Amino acid sequence: MAKPFDATMNALINLRPDDWANYFGRLVGILPGPSEMVDTDLATTVQADKVFRFQGDAPSLLHLELEANHRLGIPRDLWRYNTLVDHEHSLPVETVLVLLRPKALASDQTGVYQRFGATGRLITEFHYHVERVWERPVEYWLSGGIGLAPLALLTDESSRDLESALGRMREYLDQSEIGESAKKTLIGSSYVLCGLRYQPDRIADMFRRLSMLMEDSTTYQEILAKGVSRGISQGERAALLHLGKNKYGKPTGQQLAKIEAITSIEVIETLLVRVQDTAEWDELLAGL
Q1: Is residue 148 part of a domain?
Q2: How confident is the model at residue 227 (pLDDT cuts 50, 70, 90)?
Q3: Comparing C-alpha atoms, which of 276, 255, 265 is closest to residue 235?
Q4: Nearest alpha carbon to residue 163 among 182, 138, 181, 183
């Protein structure tokens, strides 16, 4: 995946891993049940996005690979990941390729990967599931659990009426029994993901209004006002804060002050990219 979207997707999956495991597991015939994420560090140069182990009467593994950009050769990589995970855990592995936008779809992503020998004889046939996020209706993703809700904004239905889709997502979050921190994480991550399909000027004002509707905190509103006056949307600043919290933990007051003092959209976008490659807040914010 392309930065910073890989970090955003990791944050969403880590927020509610059972939502992702059970929903995508059902697509490939794995019955919902207790699951856990397992190590995907298969080799020094090989790492699958997310792998879940399902417990129960028929233990199995689910491999999710998330892609935002067009690239030929992904099916061969999936076959390699599948084989290595199977070898590592000695359990059957079902693979789902999750394509986040139409631009990511490549001609070789058919759901079947084949290898032929020197004589033309078929020697390997690997089957995987291709999930095109944009082809589903908004309600499909909203009904999948809180962790999947932001995917609703990447659908073709949302692209035709994004403001309506955001309103439905707000209502869904209002009705969900989750804390304010989780809500903010979902809003910030949703803003970053919307950058996959929409121009910044289309989404900035809508997310600003969404954030205002979902947060009554006076302190939050003051921070929001500062961001608006400087031309920085709360969605982008919130995305940086929540992705950072997910990776480094809560920032100190001094670190938060540095983030609030940023006056450039370009700096915020650069920091969103750097989240993936830095280990702590001080390293991320060095030079500010």
Answers
A1: no
A2: very low
A3: 265
A4: 138
Backbone angles phi, psi at 96, to 5 degrees: -125, 120
Q: Are residues 37 and 80 in the same domain?
A: yes
Can you read off the two tokens belonging to residue 115? 């290898």
pTM for the predicted model, two decimal places: 0.74
Task: Please provide the size of the chain in residues.
Answer: 288
Residues 52 and 101 in one domain: yes
Count of domains forming the chain: 2
Claim to verify: residue 116 and residue 192 sit in the same structural domain: no
Q: What is the mean pLDDT of residues 198-202?
A: 76
Those residues with Cβ within 8 angstroms of residue 138's Cβ, 6 or more apart along the chain or in another chain: 152, 155, 157, 158, 165, 168
Domain match, 98 and 211 both: no
CA–CA separation, 10 vs 43, rounded Å?
20
Residues 122 and 239 in one domain: no
- Whether 140 is in a domain gets the answer no
| Mean pLDDT score across all residues of the chain | 82
Owning domain of residue 41: 5-135
- Specify the pLDDT at position 42: 52
Q: Provide the Cα torsion 67, 68, 72, 78; round to 10°.
A: 0
